[in-house]
Specification:
159 residues, 50s Ribosomal Protein L17, Chain: A, 5 helices, alpha+beta, 52% helix
Length: 159
């Protein structure tokens, strides 16, 4: 039985290898800001990267220790915490990564993607106020009557 053994996607390996692979990918992404990997792996590490950046935005000692445990590299965690302290993700409430598809790999047709850190500031959505002007039906009827009367007057002048 698999009681209390759920660990997310296995990615074709056993649990210990999956955990090590995710840790390595997260550390590489945080160190290099962009890595090329498979689609399933990128989707598997995305929530972990978001957690580390959220901890970095918090900035306290407990968050730093959690991040070091998740990433496994103190220098990478230090760099991420410095970027967060400088306000790199201050205006962003999540969505720190972007996945761009490159297409299938030649050997086995596995979907290859680039996962990268989002550095652009968040664009504030403008409040769209679309006012639709509703005219009463009586006004439209009067306009039609005036148009037909003016058309008749122009026809009489033409004759």
């Amino acid at each position: 039985m698999r009681h209390n053994k759920k660990r997310g996607m296995k990615l074709g390996t056993d649990v210990s290898h999956t955990k090590a692979m995710k840790r390595s990918l997260v550390a590489s992404l945080l160190a290099n800001d962009r890595i090329k990997t498979l689609d399933a792996r990128a989707k598997a590490i995305r929530p972990e990267v978001d957690k580390v950046i959220t901890w970095a935005k918090k900035g306290d000692l407990h968050s730093r220790r959690l991040a070091i445990a998740k990433v496994g590299d103190k220098e990478v965690v230090r760099e991420v915490f410095e970027k967060a302290a400088q306000g790199m993700w201050a205006d962003r409430n999540g969505g720190y990564t972007r996945i761009m598809k490159l297409g299938p790999r030649k050997g086995d047709a596995a979907e290859v993607v680039i996962i990268e850190m989002v550095n652009e500031p968040v664009k504030k959505a403008e409040a769209k106020t679309t006012v639709t002007k509703v005219e009463p039906a009586e006004d439209k009827a009067e306009e039609k009557v005036e148009e037909t009367a003016s058309e008749e007057a122009t026809e009489e002048k033409a004759e």
